[in-house]
Amino acid sequence: MENVNFLYDLLGRNIISVVLVISLPLMFVLVYALVAILAELKVSAWIQERLGPMRTGPWGIMQPIAEVVKLIQKEDITPDKSSKLLYNLAPFIIFTGAYAAFAVIPFSEYFVPAGINLGLFYIFAVGSISAIGIVMGGWASNNKYSLMGAMRSVAQLISYEVPAAMAVLSIVVLASTMNMQEINKLQTGWFWNWFIFGGPGTLAKIWVIPFTLGLGLIYFISSLAETNRVPFDIPEGESELVAGFHTEYGGMKFAMFFFAEYANMFVVAAVLTTIFLGGWNSPFNTFMQGPFWGVFWFVSKAFSVVLVQIWIRWTLPRFRVDQLMYIGWKVLLPLSFICFMAISLFVMLK
Amino acid sequence: MDLITIAFYFFSALTIVFGAVVVFTKNIMHAAFSLLFAFFGIAGLYVLLSADFLAITQIMIYIGGILVLIIFGVMLTTRITGVDVKTGKIGKIQIGIAGLLTVLIAATLIMIFSTSKWYLADSKPLDSTVNEIGTALLTNYLLAFEAASMLLLIAIVGAAFIARKKH
After folding, report:
1. Nearest to A230 by CA among A74, A40, A18
2. Rounded to a whole number, what is the distance in Å from the CA of A144 to chain B's nearest CA?
3. Domain boundaries in chain B?
4. Less crowded by CB within 10 Å, the N or C end of chain B?
5. Which pTM was predicted?
6. Which residue of A has its CA nearest to B74?
7. Residues A119/A178, Cβ–Cβ less than 8 Å
């Protein structure tokens, strides 16, 4: 069980390399968030037959930078009757929860910040820190809409965590490891070795393919709900709640929420990529396979998933609260249990 | 002092300071949010003890489950209804009894710490504890494991029964 980390190999295990390993994903998140914001603006424009931002830089590609500069300049407002300390702390807690998950995301064969054996379990555990941050922000704002938004958000998060966890658990049963790096290594080879297509193995795996495909879909739907994306964005339904839990936030604190949302989107996309789409493996056996290409494959796969999330946001309308609970508890949960039992049976018989 | 020792003191301080805030603050919401840091500190201490599975379970169960439920419960009752939930004043007799009990427990613990012989285990890095825990749960401790799952099932059924509307 060797976890190779190129920074430790180059610099040895000292304070500098540790700080570098910790901050490398942060650099990535900052750049990625800017790209994702631009993608959101542009994709929404193309879907609605508009041009989107065009004036800042060529084809408007500097727009996210302009927006960040604008948000930094804004006055830092704290509402008068709010709980000051918690109000100011909440954006940081949420971003901590989102960023903590990056500790176990395997970007490449040679780079995973912490290759612990419980990677997948860890991601689910730290996801709950964001939930606390949302409640903290919603409660501390002292605003009815914020509070309602926070409550909806957490109710949705804890409901959809269950089918998502079942989907991940099924793949853990199939792979018999929770180490994300090991799961990636199992899927090396052609794309039919990915766990969405039943994982590596003989032709007998044809029996689990329907279930793994279903689980991939279940995980994707649940991850949309966990990141509060459309069609599960009732926590910030503009027509009812202004902007949900971050109604009272402005300027840089609002930007923190924004960054956290995009970071969370990447985390769920990265989990989906790792456990279902082969992680840093090339889809075509040894073609463009390797540690450096691994980063390319991983980021492009994960970013494609993010693009699908954006695409869905500008295509589908929002669910009602009762529909949301119905889908979570009565459709996704039983289906994920069925898939889990089928896969367990397959692993036992194999 | 090496990094592990610094980390130990950091997590201990985090746990103790925020544990104290939980006990002494008047505002229940502040107490609930301080629990977050206290639980996190305990999870850090577990990591230092090479109990990685326990540490993550601590975060999962206590922060993700219990703490969210506590905050949810408190939030439904305060602010939105205009009633501020605060801890009430404590009487003199209660403080006296509590102080006495605290001193007794602390004295006992200190006595046990100072009199017992401590054996230090070899600090070899453990690979992972989850395999051993899984095997142990499904072999030696199967009865306890099944009993716990039955208890949880009964709790769920009971909760659903209580929550149902009475026709």
Report:
1. A40
2. 7
3. 1-88, 90-119, 128-167
4. C
5. 0.84
6. A139
7. yes
- Which of B33, B63, B76 has the CB atom closest to A86's CB atom? B33
The angle subtended at Cα B138 by Cα B133 and Cα B143, nearest 5°, is 115
Q: Mutate one of A139, A142, A156 to test the B interface: name it (highest B CB count within 10 A).
A: A139
Residue to test with chain B: of A18, A82, A118, most B Cβ within 10 A: A118
Number of H helices, E strands in chain B: 7, 0
CB–CB contact B71 A132 (8 Å): yes
- The hierarchical CATH code for the domain B1-88 is 1.20.120.1200
**Which tokens sit at A155?**
């109710």
- Chain mean position to CA B167: 39
Phi, psi of B15 (to 5 degrees): -60, -45
Nearest Cα to Cα of residue B59 among B47, B75, B73: B47
Q: Cβ contacts (< 8 Å) between A129 and chain B: which residues?
A: 36, 59, 63
Give the tens place of pLDDT for each residue, A314-327.
Answer: 888 888 878 888 88
Distance between CA atoms of A115 and A185, rounded to whole angstroms? 13
Question: pLDDT tens-digit profile of B47-72?
Answer: 888 788 888 888 888 887 788 888 77
In angstroms, what separates the C-alpha of B89 from chain A's closest C-alpha?
A: 22
The count of domains in chain A is: 1
Q: Is the residue at A33 inside a domain?
A: no
The answer as to whether A22 is a domain residue is no
Nearest to A168 by CA among A90, A39, A94, A268: A268
Chain B interface includes A88 (CB < 8 A): no
